[in-house]
Design brief:
- The complex is a heterodimer.
- Chain A is mainly beta.
- Chain A is 6% helix and 45% strand.
- Chain A has one helix and 22 strands.
- In chain A, strand 3 and strand 4 form a beta hairpin.
- The longest helix of chain A has 20 residues.
- Chain A is globular.
- Chain B folds into three domains: 95 residues, TonB (TolA/TonB C-terminal domain, 2-Layer Sandwich), CATH 3.30.2420; 110 residues, Sandwich (Immunoglobulin-like), CATH 2.60.40; 621 residues, Beta Barrel (Maltoporin, Chain A), CATH 2.40.170.
- In chain B, the strands form ten sheets. Chain B has a 22-stranded antiparallel β-barrel.
- The radius of gyration of chain B is 30 Å and the shape is globular.
- Classes of the chains: A mainly beta, B mainly beta.
- At the A-B interface, helix 1, strand 1, strand 3, strand 4 and strand 10 of A face strand 28, strand 29, strand 30, strand 31 and strand 32 of B.
Chain lengths: 314, 890
């Protein structure tokens, strides 16, 4: 019986290395926005928008809107060309084998509207059927079909591109409550040395003004993100015995900026305090200027939200 | 193909830890192998060591005997060209009058002097004189030390009845006996050494010879007496070879019990303790031999096979790990080791269910007189060892070790706020032995073994590549085993070993919400082996072994990806199960050791294994190995055999995946994996110290289990194919008074195909070049300095050629290139060890400084990528690391 043990010890080594990998500070950190970058795509069910806003999945025949979230910090404005390919996903035992040839659609634009085809989604009845969306986002270039590989690619001098995959859960059982996008409703800023009572909301209208860093080390300010009530939904899942149980979603939050120093790019809801505050620490840059922040929230079923804020460093 | 094995053998009497390189070698007889020199003089080699021809028993100090004191005195003897001892120096005194007694006795020893190029020369050697209180007491009553079985033949090679035999024993006493109608007689000797044997019979010329009898030796001798009329000149037969002489000649045939291993070279305890870079740890020393790759994460990689293909046993009981955390130290105390049988391939049929290598650790018997205490303290861990006799037939040994990694790591990581340890990494292990010898024919031993490695930490910051892999992270692996071993001798030619063990093994790993594993199982093992000397040329070993027991698995994670890919811990498709299962794997084997001539040994064997959890399959595995001394000190060795290995429980599990109840965790229709080993090699002993071994090997693997998600709905298949081939060289200088060392080099290539249609590619554990140079030199006055240099080809890696942003998880998914199509830079490292030993009246104190990576080479161990895989840097291994330690023996 030692064989599986050695395999698992190897896995321990891998996971431990991965865990300690989070300590690495020599590589570009995930929170730092340097070049053209994607952050996700928000899915909104347009068919149900009026009756049930914020639904992030759709039944066959329903329309959804996908809005690409991105940042292009290039000094000069440049066009963004996005090509979307939609298809029914072939999934067996939880493993995706890419697109089937059924229900293929090609759309263009940073924001597109897509109608879920009326297909028999019984490729693997044990899985939730999905529509897979693949977006090629091309900043400063154009999307062409490579004759050699028959794959789309981004061309153009100085262009930057990323490919993004996104899944759309297809509803086949109306007795199950649909999943909704979480909603980030507030971003607060707490200056170094102050308390929660002194938190200032970072609004979208008037930029918050923050002093630049003049000390060593720089003072750490706190960024506090909160979501609207109900964003953490109760979802059905299975326990280890195979029983269907209802558990509260744990959301994952992203903190991104183009200046200063963020403590870490991600935060995940605590198991112990599932509704607790989501906080991150940020140090202002030493130079004055405008700082962009992007905050994201997402669940594990396709729900997504993003907000952008601006802070002026003086 | 023939695969050399390594056997570390700590002899009870000699207290030397021997390492044996063997080819296709069954293990059991290695235990019984003797280090006694061949009593028949050999043709003088270029250099020949002095050989003791007249041993003198020392007087046991009366007061020490009354108090039950015993021990050994290490002497340094100067033997002059006449073979007499001209000077005796006590190197390691014992006190209580032992030193004087040993010195006095040693002064009267007589040696066959050393020779250089055939010319007798003076020499200096070390001799350990042992004092056994029990033996001294027993001297008052007859006690069997050795058995002499003599057959006398006369005219026409017919048995000669009524022949008179008179033996003059080393202590001067004489024994007389008469041969029976079969010409046979049997004499039990209560002292050993040189025995003068005088034979006479009516109508035949008398004969007088001198034989050397070793302790506990079962020595068969055949003498042929010439008829009076013939008066021919005696012609001794080639040692160990059946006589081909004419009946009228006088001849002697010596029939020693042959060892089961085909090749043997010995590595002494001194080499283990002083080997640079191993911390005096015998099991870690194994990694320096040919065929063993540099360990990764403390896993033993043998001849390009996966670590899972190598099984680890403690006297037949499977244990789940051999090293604590990443190879810091082994899980069994070196003080308790009797032997380590290490086989990289072509091993005996007594080992099954493995297609790679075998490590079988043998625990030694506790001392049966007095007590012994050893404390070992270094910067990483500390251990205590005590052994002694409870009664004359009952003895014990206990050992315990605990690490201080927690204290060191706690201090190092105190300034890092990304990680906080809720339980710092700790390892500990224990062993307890209770041995009872109810009769000279029986030995019963109860052993308790256990080990535990655990840590628990809190990742304060989510990973940038897998944010949900955050929160608490814990790992624990341990085992606790109880074992009963019974050795029984039915007769001088038939013996048996029975072993029953129960062990509880557990693995617990938790990683945030994305990964959790609790694996607990009871392992019930039963083994029985019967050994019979069928005749002078054939020895048979028959055995059964059964492994089974209940297992409980709780798993929550993601499927393991195909080889060469990292598991995507952000994967939203999950595998989860909680199931109970049981294993039932009985096996049986038969093995013959055939010695048609003394220079040739053939070991054919057959093994059959049933595996209920591998689709209820049978695996029949024929094996054959040989060793042939085709010229003096030149050996040809080889072997071929079939080796099957069942799937891992999670691979063949039919348990339902809770997250997807229509699917199962594994593939319950998997069969066993199979490999065929071929080996051929040659050995030559240049002198008493220098030897060279060259081996070539080839492993043909099929039915290998590969993880390959498919539309068939199962994640594992027996579609893998592989081949491993290479060569190994060991050029070695055995320990002399000053120096020991060796050069070990392995060149190999390990390749795989995931299906018959795919092309061969480099396997994950391929290491093309492995070079190890070791040397240790005694400077005198207790000082010794040693160096170890290693050069190893970098580990294969799978390059990341791009990434795709996964909008579902907010992370980037790597796009792997061809599996293992690139490599890390080569590994090379120099380790240094300096020892200083002080010897006292009742013990010794050893202080050592071991420096790993002396020139602080940044050895690459892996590649770390940034969040979107556009940047990378190299993760390096252990930097310059000094370790200071103390070993105290009393």
């Amino acid at each position: 019986m030692s064989t599986e043990h050695t395999a698992l010890r190897a896995l321990v080594g891998v996971t431990f290395a991965l865990a300690l990998g989070a300590c690495g500070d020599e590589l570009a950190p995930a929170w730092e926005i340097r070049g053209f970058r994607l952050f996700g795509a928000k899915i909104e069910n347009l068919t149900r928008q009026a009756a049930d806003p914020g639904v992030a999945e759709a039944a066959p025949g329903e329309q959804v809107r996908l809005t690409l979230s991105y940042v292009d910090p290039a000094p000069a404005a440049r066009p963004l060309n996005v090509t979307w390919v939609f298809c029914a996903e072939a999934t067996v035992m939880g493993t995706t084998f890419g697109c089937t040839s059924r229900g293929v659609s090609v759309l263009a634009g940073a924001t597109v509207t897509y109608e879920v085809p009326r297909l028999d989604f019984s490729v693997d009845p044990s899985n939730r059927p999905r529509i897979q969306a693949v977006a090629l986002a091309c900043a400063g270039g154009t999307v062409v079909l490579d004759p050699a590989t028959r794959q789309p690619r981004c061309t153009g001098e100085g262009s930057e591109s990323w490919v993004m995959t996104r899944s759309l859960l297809v509803r086949t059982d109306e007795t199950v409550r649909p999943n909704h996008n979480p909603t980030i409703d507030r971003v607060s800023f707490i200056r170094s040395g102050l308390t929660t009572a002194d938190a200032v909301t970072v609004g979208t209208e008037t930029p918050l003004r923050v002093p630049r860093c003049t000390t060593d080390p720089c003072p750490e300010h706190t960024l506090d993100v909160s979501v609207a009530a109900g964003s953490r939904e109760i979802q059905p899942t299975f326990d280890l015995q195979g029983n269907r149980v209802m558990t509260q979603e744990r959301l994952q939050f992203g903190f991104f900026t183009n200046k200063g120093t963020m403590e870490n790019a991600f935060r995940v809801d605590s198991v112990a305090i599932p509704d607790g505050p989501i906080r991150n620490r940020w140090m202002a840059p030493r130079e004055a200027g405008t700082v962009r922040f992007l905050f994201t929230a997402q669940d594990t079923r396709g729900g997504f939200d993003v907000v952008e804020r601006t802070v002026v460093v003086e | 193909m023939h695969l050399p094995g390594v056997v570390l053998n700590r002899r009870i009497r000699a207290r030397a830890l021997a390492v044996t390189l063997s080819v296709g070698a069954p293990a059991a007889a290695q235990i019984g192998a003797t280090t006694q020199a061949d009593p028949t003089p050999a043709t003088p080699a270029a250099t020949a060591a002095p050989r003791l021809t007249q041993f003198v028993q020392a007087d046991y100090p009366a007061e020490a005997l009354a108090q039950g004191l015993e021990g050994s005195v290490l002497l340094e003897l100067t033997v002059d060209p006449t073979g007499h001892v001209s000077q005796v120096t006590v190197v390691q005194p014992l006190g209580h009058g032992f030193d004087e007694a040993a010195t006095a006795a040693a002064r009267t020893f007589v040696f066959e002097p050393a020779r250089r190029d055939g010319v007798v020369v003076a020499s200096i050697l070390r001799y350990r004189y042992r004092f056994s209180a029990a033996a001294a007491r027993a001297a008052q009553q007859p006690q069997v030390h050795a058995l002499l079985r003599v057959t006398v033949r006369g005219r026409g090679d017919q048995p000669l009845a009524g022949a008179a035999v008179r033996l003059t024993l080393p202590d001067g006493t004489t024994r007389e006996a008469t041969s029976d109608e079969r010409g046979a007689l049997r004499v039990e000797l209560d002292s050993v050494g040189s025995v003068r044997i005088a034979l006479s019979a009516d109508g035949h010329e008398p004969m007088e010879v001198t034989e050397t009898v070793a302790d506990r030796e079962d020595l068969g001798l055949t003498y042929r007496l010439s008829p009076v009329r013939a008066a021919a000149t005696p012609t001794p037969a080639t040692p160990g070879e059946p006589s081909t002489a004419e009946p009228e000649d006088e001849a002697t045939v010596r029939a020693r019990r042959p060892p089961r291993e085909v090749t043997r070279q010995s590595l002494e305890f001194r080499e283990i303790l002083r080997m640079p870079g191993t911390g005096g740890d015998a099991l870690r020393a194994v990694q320096n031999f040919p065929g063993v790759a540099r360990a990764i994460n403390g896993l033993l990689i043998v001849r390009g096979s996966t670590p899972q293909d190598t099984q680890i046993f403690a006297d037949g009981t499977s244990i789940p790990l051999i090293y604590h955390f990443g190879g810091l130290s082994s899980v069994i105390s070196t003080e308790l080791l009797d032997r380590i049988d290490f086989y990289p391939g072509n091993y005996s049929a007594r080992y099954g269910r493995a297609q790679g290598g075998i490590v079988d650790v043998g625990l030694r018997s506790p001392r049966r007189q007095g007590y012994r205490f050893v404390a070992n303290i270094n910067l990483i861990d500390a251990s205590l060892f005590v052994e002694g006799a409870i009664t004359r037939n009952l003895s014990f040994a206990v050992s315990f070790r605990r690490s201080y990694v927690d204290a060191i790591l706690g201090a190092v990581l105190s300034g890092i706020d990304a990680v906080s340890f809720t339980s710092l990494p700790v390892y500990w292990d224990y062993q307890g032995l209770l041995e009872y010898r109810p009769s000279p024919r029986d030995r019963v031993r109860l052993a308790l073994l256990g080990s535990d490695d655990s840590l628990s930490l809190l990742l304060n910051r989510p990973s940038e590549t897998a944010p949900r892999f955050s929160g608490s992270f814990s790992t624990g692996i341990g085992f606790h085993a109880g074992q009963v071993l019974w050795d029984h001798t039915f007769s001088p030619t038939i013996s048996s070993r029975a072993m029953v063990s129960v062990s509880r093994n557990s693995i617990n790993i938790g990683g945030g919400e994305v990964f959790g594993l609790d694996l607990n199982f009871w392992n019930l093992t039963g083994r029985y082996e019967l050994t019979a000397q069928v005749n002078r040329r054939v020895r048979a070993n028959l055995g059964i072994d059964i492994v089974g027991g209940p297992a409980e698995i709780r798993f929550n994670g993601v499927r393991m990806p195909s080889e060469g890919q990292m598991p995507n811990l952000q994967n939203l498709a999950r595998v989860s199960t909680q199931s109970s299962d049981s294993l039932y794997r009985p096996g049986a084997y038969a093995e013959l050791e055939i010695t048609p001539t003394p220079r040739l040994r053939l070991i054919p064997s057959l093994r059959a294994d049933y595996t209920r959890d591998a689709n209820r399959s049978w695996a029949v595995q024929p094996r054959l190995s040989f060793r042939w001394e085709f010229a003096r000190d030149w050996f040809l060795k080889g072997g071929v055999g079939v080796f099957n290995q069942p799937p891992q429980p999670q691979q063949s599990s039919g348990a339902v995946n809770s997250f997807n109840p229509a699917t199962t965790v594994g593939n319950p229709f998997l069969g066993t994996q199979r490999s065929v080993h071929y080996g051929l090699g040659m050995e030559h002993n240049f002198s008493q110290y220098l030897s060279l071994s060259v081996e070539g090997f080839y492993k043909d693997l099929d039915q290998q289990i590969v993880a390959q998600p498919s539309i068939q709905g199962v994640p594992y298949f027996n579609s893998g194919i592989g081949r491993i081939y290479g060569g190994e060289i060991l050029f070695r200088h055995r320990p002399s008074a000053r120096f020991f060392g060796w050069l070990a080099y392995t060149i190999s290539r390990s390749e795989r195909r995931d299906s018959p249609e795919s092309a061969y590619r480099i396997f994950q554990f391929d290491q093309t070049h492995i070079l190890t140079l070791i040397g240790s030199y005694r400077l005198g006055r207790g000082w010794e300095v040693g160096l170890r240099f290693r050069f190893v080809t970098g580990n294969p890696t799978t390059p990341i050629i791009g990434a795709v942003y996964n909008g579902d998880t907010g992370t980037y998914t790597q796009i792997p290139g061809a599996p293992f199509s690139s490599r890390n830079a080569p590994f090379h490292q120099l380790d240094l060890r300096v020892d200083k030993t002080w010897t006292f009246r009742r013990g010794s104190l050893n202080l050592f400084l071991e420096v790993l990576n002396v020139y602080n080479n940044a050895n690459p161990e892996g590649v770390q990528y940034n969040y979107n895989y556009t940047q990378s840097n190299t993760v390096t291994g252990i930097p310059f690391f000094p370790n200071l330690g103390v070993r105290f023996e009393y």
